[in-house]
Amino acid sequence: MRVLSRQCLYLFLCISLCAAAPISNPPSPVTYQHIVRRGPNYSIHIVRVDLRDRHVAIHIARGGPDPDGDGPWLTTLLPTSEIAERDHFDVAINGDFFEAQATKDVEGRNTGYVRGKPAAPVGTAMTDGVLWHRSQTTRSYLEITSSNIAKIAEGGPADPIDASAREIVGGSQIIVRGGRAILFPGSKFAEARHPRTAVGIDASGTQLTLLVVDGRQPELSIGMTLAELSEEMIRAGCATAINLDGGGSTTLVYRDAKSKKLAVLNSPSDSKERAVADVLGVTLNTNVASVSSK
User: Fold this and answer.
1) d(CA 237, CA 210)
2) What is the pLDDT of residues 48-73, one digit of tens each?
3) Residue 150 and which of 10, 26, 103, 167 are 20 to 30 A apart at CA?
4) What is the mean pLDDT of residues 215-242?
């Protein structure tokens, strides 16, 4: 009986200690960081997504519906925040470069990239396993597979697409490969400082990094060249990265964990959101919670 009593006492103490121990919340699979630098001025927004977490899903969403059936246009332009609200995204960034009906690339308040205008992405686009556009030239793209692994590749109209691909968004160039920056000497587009949006992955394809840097606002942020953007993606832990559409399209939307409301976290250079052709969205069945700034 004495032996049994000691065993019972030991079990009771173990249960009591376990019950008294604080329970820590597991880390969020999505984290947000705002980095502010001065001299020169940069405002950088970084979202990291752990694709290994079963609560996380990545989706590529077009703006509005196809306006002309078999015609050249595949979607209509909508602001990133409106697409995110419609599709219940917790995080969203602008996606691919795009063409829009009767529109020149004008920046600022007079831009012709407005809500409801017929448009089409330049690069390859896939949503829920349905390919809805093929790039007509060799361009880079981000692919999310059916097993939630991220890949970055390049391809043109005749190149095969991975059979396991579920979501694809196109970009202009691969700017980081094997953890090293890829440079584009002599390119005005690469060497000018603009607002930029980029997406990158680690070597395993399980850590997705979304980066937005504001620009054309000297007191806030001057923007980056592609070389500077490459270094920033490497600093963020990316082994491979591509440049997405930037300029006035650059937008990061994030859902607040407490209010449940979406907000634009960066400062679009047009002084308001620009309507875009597609976005990369992140959904969670738990709310985004981890935020830091430095």
Assistant:
1) 11
2) 999 999 999 999 999 999 999 999 99
3) 26
4) 98
Exposure pattern of 178-204 as b/e (b: 16+ CB <10 Å)? Answer: eeebbebeeeeebeebbbbbbbbbbee
Report yes or no on 4 lying in a domain.
no
Closest CA to 180 of 225, 235, 140: 235
254 within domain boundaries? yes
Which region holds residue 144: left if phi is over 0, alpha if psi is between -120 and 50, else beta? beta
Distance CA 144, CA 35 (A): 27
* pLDDT (tens digit per residue) in 106-116: 666 678 899 99
40: cis peptide before it, omega within 30°? yes
Asked whether the CA dihedral 87, 273, 96, 183 is positive or negative, the reply is: negative
Q: pTM for the whole thing?
A: 0.89
Taking a C-beta distance cutoff of 8 angstroms, is the pair 56, 287 a contact?
no
DSSP structure string for 99-143: EETT-----GGG-S--TT-EEEESS-EEETTEEEE--SS-EEEEE
The two structure tokens encoding residue 283: 């959904």
Determine, yes or no, domain membership for 246: yes
Q: State which residues form the domain around 233.
A: 29-293
Residues 65, 194: Cα–Cα separation, whole Å: 30
Considering the domain boundaries, does residue 8 fall inside one? no
Tell me how many domains the chain contains: 1
Integer Cα distance of 114 and 77 in angstroms: 6
